[in-house]
Design brief:
- This protein is an alpha+beta fold.
- 50% of the residues lie in helices and 11% in strands.
- A five-stranded mixed sheet has the order 1-2-9-6-3.
- A hairpin with an 8-residue loop joins strand 11 and strand 12.
Length: 424
């Protein structure tokens, strides 16, 4: 069978990953399509049809197997993040205006920026952040019990990661409501935004500009009067003379908000839903929280896979997964498929908090772009689930999650909940 025949067959079976309609299918159907693609001898090329170029971008090969996604992630000299790791690729004017994001960098440029940021996450800062996360989680659940909100997303899932990052960065309280209101709009820059049921890319420029302005002002203030926060540490030059410019800080903050807040909020929401749908797993976790929470967090991330895919551009000829890739070709690293690969995970569709080993790619496939915020996300999920599962008041969902159609993230728009009976 030729590649063209394979792609035609995929379209006939509603398995065309370049068609926006594919991403409107129920998630089980998409996962089944990935499973069929994993059975093929080599990665398939998907080409946007006329009229869909705006949402689908350029032709791309889909890497759907765990081993292939991991190899591409760990071979950055061949599979480059530049000129863009998302679809569509960021326009040149956007990079010039807002600065280049770390997710779109390679080589020395990426390594230098990541080194500057990593050095500022000192053991002292991380210890203080962990204590703060515990306090925030407790306060949010206290408020939920007192106020009995109808939607879990704004009451806890979204608030916890946002407050954690704002506290970490030292964002003044007066800026936070406006930033929170803009995050959804800014996320359009890295995904596809809703129009009807499908989201259309590129409508978050004003939100990004607003956040850049907030950070530029804060950077100037912290240079004059440093405080004990991450912004002050990032803008001050260290012993090697390394520090972030205001534009670099703005690009990093935008990434931290869109990636850090969005991914964690979605993982938390999917976790609440998964534990409610699998009461035996919830009760196992509740029976010995400290023993099982580590495995539960990893399984929630694997099963939900908050980031569906990132893109790479082939730089040099390379053989992978039964195909020889050529310079200039595009590949999609489909983490949502890799995390259900039967060659790696026994009964991959089963939600099992005791799964071990669990080499999921929910934080990326390793290599230089492995998620910087993975540790922070684990701390936040652990703290919030501890509060949700060890209280006397039981918090339960009352309906299915309101999922948002996207080819980039497994986003939850709403999650109805109620306060259940008191545990005796």
């Amino acid at each position: 069978m030729t590649v063209t025949d394979q792609v035609s067959d995929d379209r006939a079976a509603h398995r065309d990953l370049a068609d926006p309609a594919f991403w409107q299918l129920p998630r089980p159907e998409r996962l089944a399509a990935f499973a069929r693609l994993r059975e093929l001898e080599a990665p398939v090329l998907f080409t946007p049809r006329p009229g869909t170029a705006r949402t689908s971008g350029k032709p791309f090969y889909a890497l759907v197997r765990h081993a292939d996604v991991m190899t591409a992630s760990r071979t950055p000299k061949v599979f480059a993040s530049a000129p863009g790791a998302t679809t569509p690729e960021p326009a040149g004017w956007a990079k010039a205006l807002f600065g280049n994001s770390m997710v779109n960098m390679d080589g020395a440029e990426h390594a230098a920026l990541r080194r500057i940021i990593s050095r500022r996450f000192t053991p002292r800062l991380l210890a203080a952040t962990e204590e703060n996360i515990g306090r925030l989680a407790g306060r949010l659940v206290d408020e939920m019990i007192a106020e009995r909100p109808g939607d879990f997303m704004p009451s806890a899932a979204s608030r916890l990661p946002l407050e954690v990052i704002c506290d970490l960065m030292g964002i003044p309280a007066e800026h936070r409501p406006r930033i929170a209101a803009q995050i959804d709009h800014a996320s359009e820059q890295v995904g596809v935004e809703r129009r009807g049921r499908l989201r259309i890319p590129g409508r978050g420029t004003a939100s990004l500009a607003m956040m850049q302005l907030v950070m530029a002002r804060l950077a100037r203030e912290r240079r004059r009067r440093p405080q004990d926060d991450l912004v002050s540490a990032l803008v001050r030059a260290d012993v090697d003379g390394e520090g972030l410019s205001s534009r670099e800080l703005g690009a990093f903050f935008s990434l931290l908000l869109v990636a850090g807040v969005e991914t964690t909020r979605n993982a938390i929401a999917h976790g609440v839903s998964l534990l409610d749908r699998h009461p035996e797993q919830r009760e196992l976790l509740r029976s010995d929280f400290e023993r099982y929470i580590g495995g539960a967090v990893e399984e929630i991330v694997r099963h939900s896979t908050p980031i569906i895919q990132f893109r790479r551009t082939v730089v040099s000829e390379f053989e992978l997964g039964g195909r020889t890739f050529l310079p200039g070709e595009k590949v999609a690293l489909l983490y949502a498929s890799a995390n259900r690969d039967e060659a790696v995970f026994t009964r991959p569709d089963l939600f099992d908090i005791t799964r071990s080993p669990n080499p999921h790619l929910g934080y990326g496939g390793g290599g230089p772009h492995h998620c910087l915020g993975a540790h922070l996300a684990r701390l936040e999920m652990t703290a919030l689930f501890r509060e949700l599962l060890t209280r006397r008041t039981v918090i339960r969902r009352t309906g299915e999650p309101g999922l948002v159609d996207s080819n980039f993230d497994n986003r939850v728009g709403s999650l109805p909940l109620s306060m259940g009976p008191t545990v005796t």
